[in-house]
Amino acid sequence: MYGPLAGADFPTLAWMRASRKVERERPPRLEYADPRGDLALRRALQSYLARARGISCDLDQLLIVSGSQQALDLCARVLVDPGDRVVVEDPGYRMAHHVFRAYGARLHGIAVDSQGLRTDDLARVRTAVMACVTPTHQFPLGAFLSMPRRRSLLQWAAQTGAWILEDDYDSEYRYAVQPEATLQSMDETGCVIYIGTFSKTLSPELRLGYMVIPSPAIELFTATKRLTDRHSSTHAQRTLALLLHEGTYDWHVRRIRRLQDARRTALLRALHLHLSDQVTVVGASSGLHLVAWAKTVPASREEELVAAAWREGVHVYPVSPLYLPQRDGTAASRPAGLILGYALLSPEQIDRGVKRLAAAILGLR
Amino acid sequence: MYGPLAGADFPTLAWMRASRKVERERPPRLEYADPRGDLALRRALQSYLARARGISCDLDQLLIVSGSQQALDLCARVLVDPGDRVVVEDPGYRMAHHVFRAYGARLHGIAVDSQGLRTDDLARVRTAVMACVTPTHQFPLGAFLSMPRRRSLLQWAAQTGAWILEDDYDSEYRYAVQPEATLQSMDETGCVIYIGTFSKTLSPELRLGYMVIPSPAIELFTATKRLTDRHSSTHAQRTLALLLHEGTYDWHVRRIRRLQDARRTALLRALHLHLSDQVTVVGASSGLHLVAWAKTVPASREEELVAAAWREGVHVYPVSPLYLPQRDGTAASRPAGLILGYALLSPEQIDRGVKRLAAAILGLR
Fold first, then answer.
1. Residue B251 has pLDDT above 90, yes or no
2. B27 and A7 in contact by Cβ < 8 A?
3. How far apart are CA B131 and CA B158, in angstroms?
């Protein structure tokens, strides 16, 4: 969802070994495959989701898709009619907003705070076809949706008949905390559609993700996936199935989580060292990015600050464009917000970057 | 579009060599790529289309997609509003019909004969948003759309303002004839969207195809592709780019065309030997399948005939389901039609299969 990964972190040797094995075992018939995805991959994924995310699901509930973007697109296509209300987090993931709007949805933004989506605000929404949330690591502000709010959200969905899209885009990067229950595993009414991706652990270039879909809806999603592009690339699916099956993927996730944690720690240390008076950091307990609110710079100068940072060679991104347009009035009370992704950098580069960022912030005053 | 390919015909060694090269050259940043497709692939494809299909287009007009199914889906999504009329060939490709209907199109079937789409019938259609045609090898009946009809079709499009989708799904398999001009290269008004695929020359498992789009529409198609799934798998694109660039793909196409031609010749010979009194063969001058009309069996017994063939181990497919429902009345005057794909079989298997098919037909009388 945010920021590129480092090519050097990709498990190239393991991937090539598995890929060669898949090439050597090319089947005698090359034909369109199951739109739900490769059976071996779905089996391996079912077992991975059980051990890594506590998700228990039938094989039939799993749909392999071409990245989480396709998952969002399929949800919009299958569930949204023009004029339907879709609840989104505000600020939130713009590509989700775009895709819902493309199907004629009216977006209803709900604010987020340190405990995630404000479910007290949500309670006032009486009709909606869907709510799209990032409960493990709210995008972009990084909150973990608290347990009471998870229950409120599920209760709201049961009352309104809305679907919940649980976009678990970077849940592999929960640092120094146990992974908590997903909405999917708390769901008793079959309203949660869970979305996962390999873009954050392997590569966004792969275009592989997956959905866990409540049984009554799976047929419609499968038919729609088939109409859309028949199925996702078979070779990548089979290669990934091997990595999952032989444990290499779990090993890789543990390894890359440590690597990212080292980068995160370096970033937090550098921010504390060079900018502790200037910024408030949020969303650093998981994921691959955090948000730094520049306390001394108003949101109205956010663009200016970002430009100054880029001139110093520091590629930070503004938070403001991720707010829905109709909430722009609130911008006045916000400080400037910067998104800092760290998956691509060494601890040294991070320290150097934060020093330059500090210079940019000071230069603005 | 029809029938699987043989795994043994895939250029495994060349693909693996190119794939390893791509793996070794993994970029330092793994990130979302250009939704239009990999630049090296589009460059190589531009040059391939010029030499193989006489298509001259700008690099910007090329959009790499996940197979021709996604191309059809994008066309429907971008161009069709609910209630719009879409012209399709009757009989025609069902997955195209399904995808247009899914976007609310009203299908208007136009009959085909030995020269392809009946453009005299088309002339009576005054409004349509789009016509989807397979001019090189009409699916399923195999006609090559004659030059006068190509001109009529383009003229009709210019008059009605309709788009033409030229689905060139198996044009690589023109046997013993020079490849003729595409509609795309005859188009002077920018109404033709050309669709090609690697599913028939490499593998349907790859999920790689492409579109040549008139310049004014490319931005909308690119934005829609990005919303749909960001972009197609980078690795497969880069591997294919290498094969095209180094000439291996052209070599492979020449080789597999010879292989398929040998199968086609064996099938024609076997049909002549064992069934010459019983069937009329159409559509054999190109592609990977032909249609055999069983002169002595009425369409009403087509299903029965297909079942009898399958009991003999001969996997033929009925033509009738490819006609639009509203034209079912014409079935009374048709003989039973069988689709025979041959890309998977050796000449010996083909001869054996046709003998068994003859037994099935005789058994039915």
1. yes
2. yes
3. 12
ipTM of this complex prediction, to 2 decimal places: 0.96
Mean pLDDT over residues A51-63, rounded? 96
Strands of B279-282's sheet in order across: B279-282, B289-298, B335-341, B317-318
Q: Which two tokens stand for residue B344?
A: 């998977």
A74 to chain B: closest CA residue: B228
Q: Which residue among A15, A70, A204 sits closest to B228, beta carbon to beta carbon?
A: A70
d(CA B1, CA B6): 15
Q: B90-116 burial, b for 16+ CB within 10 Å, e for fewer?
A: bbbbbbbbbbbebbebebbbbebeeeb
pLDDT at B56 over 90: yes
Contact assessment for residue B211 and residue B194, using Cβ atoms and an 8 Å cutoff: yes
Q: Is B236 within 8 Å of A233 when comparing Cβ atoms? A: yes
d(C-alpha A351, C-alpha A268), whole Å: 10
Cα–Cα distance between B167 and B289 in angstroms, integer?
Answer: 16
Give the separation between CA A183 and CA A136, rounded to whole angstroms: 9
Q: In whole numbers, what is the pLDDT of chain A averaged over residues?
A: 95
* Helices B234-245 and A234-245, packing angle to 10 deg: 130
Angle CA(A261)–CA(A67)–CA(A125) in degrees, nearest 5?
A: 90
Q: Binning pLDDT at 50, 70 and 90, where does residue A245 land?
A: very high
Q: Which positions in chain B touch A76 (Cβ < 8 Å)?
A: none
**Mean predicted lDDT score pLDDT of chain B:** 95
Element (H, E) at A29: strand A29-30
Residue B331 has pLDDT above 70, yes or no: no
Asked if B227 and A203 come within 8 Å (Cβ–Cβ), the reply is no
Neighbouring residues of B189: CB distance < 8 A, sequence distance ≥ 6: B154, B157, B158
A136 contact partners, CB below 8 Å, separation of at least 6: A144, A145, A168, A170, A171, A174, A179, A180, A182, A286
| CA dist., res. B64 & res. B48, Å (int) | 14
DSSP-derived letter for residue A178 is P
Can you tell me the distance from the alpha carbon of B182 to that of B55, in angstroms, rounded to the nearest whole number?
7
Q: Which residues contact B215 (CB under 8 A, 6 or more apart)?
A: B58, B60, B61, B190
pLDDT at residue A177, rounded to an integer: 72
Q: Which residues of B touch A28 (CB under 8 A)?
A: 6-8
Three-state SS sequence of B289-314: EEEEEEEEEEHHHHHHHHHHHHHCCC
> Given A6, A33, A234, which is nearest B28 (Cβ)?
A6
Taking Cα atoms as reference points, which of B21, B29, B69, B35 lies closest to residue B241? B21
Report which secondary-structure segment, H or E, holds B337.
strand B335-341
Q: CB–CB of B66 and A229 under 8 A?
A: yes
pLDDT of residue A1: 42
Residues 6+ apart with CB under 8 A from A30: B4, B5, B6, B7, B10, B203, B204, B205
Q: What is the pLDDT of residues A301-334, one digit of tens each?
A: 999 999 999 999 999 999 999 999 865 566 668 9
Each residue's pLDDT tens digit, B36-51: 999 999 999 999 999 9
pLDDT in tens, B145-174: 999 999 999 999 999 999 999 999 998 998
To the nearest whole Å, the CA of A207 is away from the closest chain B CA by 6
pLDDT digits 0-9 by tens, B345-357: 999 999 999 999 9
The residue whose two tokens read 């294919």 is: B240
> Would strands B85-90 and B130-133 be described as parallel, antiparallel, or unpaired?
parallel
